[in-house]
Amino acid sequence: KDAIVVSFMNNQKQQKPTLTGQRFKTRKRDEKERFDPTQFQESIVQGLNQTGTDLEAVAKFLDASGAKLDYRRYAETLFDILVAGGMLAPGGTLSDDMTRTEFCLFTAQEDLETMQAYAQVFNKLIRRYKYLEKGFEEEIKKLLLFLKGFTESERNKLAMLTGILLANGNISASILNSLYNENLVKEGVSAAFAVKLFKSWINEKDINSVAASLRKVGMDNRLMELFPANKRSCEHFSKYFTDAGLKELSDFARNQQSIGARKELQKELQEQMSRGDPQKEIIAFTKEEMKKANLSEQAMISIIWSSLMGCVEWNKKEELVTEQAIKHLKQYSLLLKAFTSQGLSELSLLLKIQEYCYDNIHFMNSFQKIAVLLYKADVLSEEAILKWYSDAHLSKGRSVFLEQMKKFVEWLKNAEEESESDEEETD
Fold first, then answer.
1. Buried b (16+ CB within 10 A) or exposed e, 176-193
2. For residue 163, which of 18, 21, 200, 311 is within the disulfide window of CB 3.0 to 4.6 Å?
3. What is the pTM of this model?
4. Dihedral (CA of 397, 402, 407, 413) sign
């Protein structure tokens, strides 16, 4: 038995498996193609040299070439050529060892009409090849970072084109992030570029459309960052852009800064109230901030009301919330009184109360009780209440609130008539 086992083992050792020479072909699509834009660039440059300044022909050439050339792989190369005539090295200079064309955005005429025609070329190309959308936006971001490497004329053309593309919705306003680059800001490149960009953008649309696009990407409060820290003031921004013929933009930025300042003030007041800071301290702080921000008393009383109502966790039960509100507002009647020295301020407060009670359903039945409380606390005068009742109220919940106030207003009118008749008797 042992001899048989040893013989079997020896045979096993001798019969080693051998590899045959058979090969499996790698399918072409599985091969990792080397990134080599040279041939691609030559094809695009050749086509652009043939079409020349005829942008209709350029658009047709680009449309047809997408079927033969790898736009997806060489998107950056394609956009570099269309804008600068050749591939761009880091910093914005043209690569020396590459073929280039004289027919591109940077060599075109520096006027709005030509830039609009170029915008159409890009628009048609991206509509035809949707996958280029993201690459195109990345290209614009990159070009903005390279601004120092371009001539003033090249920057102007790019700014006009970018404004038109933003107006057409071809790119998102988030590309403006590139303009906040420290070096571009420090040397004044960002602000000068922004002037041309916003001019062409507003020319295509209007300031409201521009504002909406900026808000969508959170850029509406960042325009001051186009300037270095030592020049980042509303006054400097306003003068710079107004002098450049963009008063609409400077007004918008001023308004945004004012809104931002009001939000910050409201937040600070809310925190002070939540902490239970003494009312006298809150009044002193508010008066100082009001002066600093150049706010009217009407604007200030609106901020105070929002802060007062925002610093409390309100009861969800309608029958309990009114009692809670009365107690809370009674506590802060001194603060409210300090900022209602004018009739317009009283009306502003009444309108804010009406709006709040309408927007917060649990407060719908609280309006009259709040108004009466503030009348008794000398915050609201009978003149303001009567004016509000007769013709100065909002349409929001109008019938409900007027009905609530009806008896109190009648009482005020009767009291006023009695007072007048007493005066006549005295005379």
1. bebbeeeebbeeebbbbb
2. 200
3. 0.67
4. positive
